[in-house]
Design goal:
Alpha-Beta Plaits; single chain; alpha+beta; 10 strands; 8-stranded mixed sheet
Length: 283
Amino acid sequence: MPEGPAPAPVIHRLRVRYAKRGRLRFTSHRDISRAVERAVRRAGIPVAFSAGFSPHPKISYTGAAATGVASEAEYLELGLTEIRDPARVQAQLDAALPDGLDICDVVVVPPGSGKPSALAERLEASEWRVRLDGVAHDDAAAAVAAFLAAGTVEVERLTKKGRRRFDARSAVSSFELDRRASEAADAPCAILRMVVRHTTPAVRPDDILTGLRQVADLAPPSPPLVTRLAQGPLDAATGGLTDPLGPDRASPERETAHAAGDVAGAERSDVVPSADAVISARS
């Protein structure tokens, strides 16, 4: 057994939404996790560590986008050994991360709301934007219509368990050509928007593009630019997504945690810069 005192327990948890933009979309998930760990250290955020011979910071990730894909909706959870104000943590962590990894939102996890897997259970679907340069609007619209009209669209992809065939159509909740965005783009292109359920095996935007090639012979001349716009609970009535952090934001315990964080922040004001100071220094 390792010698020494046991690690400090987690007494405060924060859920974080962050974006992966620009060239950082080509960064692997492993490199992103390393960047987050470095940023947590630089910002002085009191993250808890696991016990054992090789302690790891208690940072968990949920629903990470693939390498090469930009995202406005990536999620992680921090287990802290002290209560901290989420706005302060957002400013400090954002200032310590490289440009392109941007902290968009931080909320307190209410006590008794479950393990980090509770957030994963809320992520039922993703909304994607796919830009296809060199593709005519009418060709894209016809391909989308053919895809939606199909009962099934089977595609094949190499997975960790070998080659698998699966139906890409059944995972798609909504699918359309965004004509306004396509016409406003800086070059001729078609911009598609789709809401895709999280299934096993996962249906990815490139699987749906494979399906478009099968049903309508749509073959973009250059690689697509894929961005995840959101992920969260699927609203059956509208077909859209709702905020996965909404239940945490609406919790009555949130105000208590905010107040405790404000008091703790005031007590540390001589060693930890305020959120306003961090933002001013960064700008």
